[in-house]
Design goal:
468 residues, Aspartate Aminotransferase, domain 2, 7-stranded mixed beta sheet, 4-stranded mixed beta sheet, binds pyridoxal-5'-phosphate
Length: 468
């Protein structure tokens, strides 16, 4: 079978086939908002459709493509790994590439931990490889429970740690939880920034782990700077492990290797995934300390007590090793910090001109733009009409023309909120930043004209929502 022939011959069936056999509701949404494009090629920060139109990808596959899409060095190393005909997944062996990737990953994680902590004992020295972010968090929950002999997990409001039943129990949005019955018991949400509530929960001395995203994926929220340092102190005092979920914010996304570095803390466990794949082979990791390992894998007959089938496979390890190299050697982390600042500065100028833009927040290239109810009477009518139908529709009025008029792919983050999120590849350049800022100003300016074209889009979307 020739895959490219198959792809080209059946391209016209793309959305129908997906709707028939995979997810019809998603296809309905794509069609409703005009996102049912047929992308046939991608390179770096760009997607291309059948007609050769170029789209700027400010979504990065939810944070997978930090190094851009189809990176030639990643392709080369994967071809090389395939051609080596390795003795892959023997299982009863200790694969070399897994050892090397663990070593390199820990150097990155400890680079910051050591600098902050000046204490070797706090170094993370052990890695468990997973196939996804949620699997990394599930493992972290198990390790923390086993190591502390405690059951409860504390997490932050607005959190997103994955959608399997353990990680889902730590989700700050009920929309994701509804309909799936009882999840992992003993999980309690606390408001980010409130140390009294955190201490109240931790002082019960039954909390295994405090799981957090230093910069949250849903809405790009971070608590005040002092919060995490104080939270770390409290966790140490009460015997709770700190688990940093760096699945989205890790590997340079926020302008540092890991988002927890912005807060000068030393987590006991760090979970990583997404960009470690290089955009090719799913790979995640739990980085943790040997004393935790020793409690979980406490004797020889527990050597695979937590394990998986695909975790350390050759292609995943090759992708991970090359992804780290590319991020480092192409200065993508520095670029994330620089471009992030340029975008946030540009957005703040736009915010001053348009009343509905209420907040711009970001770390590196993880950026949120929040909209709020306007003060002027005319706009208020439009805002209230749209929000009466669906509280998530206004964001679509921004995201839809960004794609359909300006060919920039973005997303509305979370449910029932007016937040647009930007998550571009870390390799974006001057031209991309300017293209985005010009397009965004155009779209926002249209939204500030009521009645007008933007509100017509809103009305159409509202109609569709009501008929759904
Ligand atoms: N943790 C965070 C912070 C995430 O953003 C995500 C995914 O978006 C996950 C965990 C889950 O990762 P995965 O989709 O690979 O299971």
């Amino acid at each position: 079978m020739n895959i490219s022939e198959l792809f080209n011959n059946r391209l016209h069936e793309q959305h129908d086939l997906f709707a028939k056999h995979v997810n019809p509701q998603l296809v309905r949404v794509l069609r409703t908002i005009g996102f049912d494009k047929k992308y046939v090629r991608a390179e770096g920060q760009y997607l291309y459709d059948k007609e050769g139109n170029q789209y700027l990808d400010f979504l990065s596959g939810y944070g997978v493509f930090n190094m851009g899409r189809n990176h030639p060095r990643l392709k080369k190393s994967l071809h090389e790994a395939l051609d080596m005909d390795t003795a892959n997944m023997v299982q009863m062996d200790a694969p070399l590439l897994a050892g090397i990737l663990a070593e390199k990953l820990l150097e990155k994680v400890n680079g910051s931990v050591l600098r902050q902590a000046q204490d070797e004992r706090k170094n993370l020295d052990t890695v468990f490889f997973t196939n996804s972010g949620t699997e990394a968090n599930e493992g972290a929950i198990k390790f923390a429970r086993c190591a502390t002999k405690r059951q409860r997990i504390i997490y932050l409001e607005h959190a997103f740690h994955g959608l399997t039943t353990g990680s889902l129990a730590l989700n700050g949005n009920d929309e994701f939880k509804n309909g799936f019955g009882d999840l992992l018991p003993g999980c309690t949400a606390v408001p980010a920034g409130d140390l009294n509530v955190l201490e109240y929960e931790l002082s019960k001395k039954d909390v295994a782990a405090f799981v957090f995203e230093a910069v949250q994926g849903k809405g790009v929220y971070s608590p005040p700077k002092e919060y995490f340092a104080k939270a770390e102190e409290l966790c140490r005092k009460h015997g709770t492990l700190l688990v940093a979920d760096e699945v989205q914010s890790g590997l340079g996304r926020t302008g540092k290797w890991f988002a927890f570095e912005h807060f000068g803390i030393s987590p006991d466990i760090v979970t990583i995934a997404k960009a470690l794949s290089g955009g090719f082979v799913p790979v995640g990791a739990i980085c943790y300390r040997k004393d935790i390992y020793n409690k979980v894998y406490s004797k020889m007959d527990r050597c695979v007590v937590h394990s998986n089938t695909f975790g350390r496979n050759t292609l995943a390890m090759a992708a991970g090793l090359t992804a780290l190299k590319v991020l480092e050697e192409e200065n993508l982390i520095e670029n994330a910090a620089k471009r992030g600042e340029e975008i946030v500065n540009g957005l703040n100028l736009i915010k001053e001109k348009f009343e509905m833009v209420s907040d711009v927040r970001g770390r590196g290239l993880m950026i949120a733009i929040e909209f709020d109810r306007p003060k002027s009477t005319k706009l208020k009518i439009g805002w209230d009409l749209i929000h009466k139908v669906n509280s998530g529709l206004f964001g679509q009025m921004v995201v839809v023309p960004l794609l359909t008029k300006h060919r920039i792919l973005t997303q509305v983050t979370g449910h029932n909120c007016d937040i647009v999120k930007l998550l571009p590849p870390l390799c974006i350049n001057d031209e991309d930043v300017n293209h985005f800022l010009t397009a965004f100003e155009d779209v926002v300016s249209e939204c500030h004209k009521f009645p007008g074209g933007a509100w017509e889009i809103g009305k159409q979307l509202a109609k569709q929502a009501l008929s759904a």
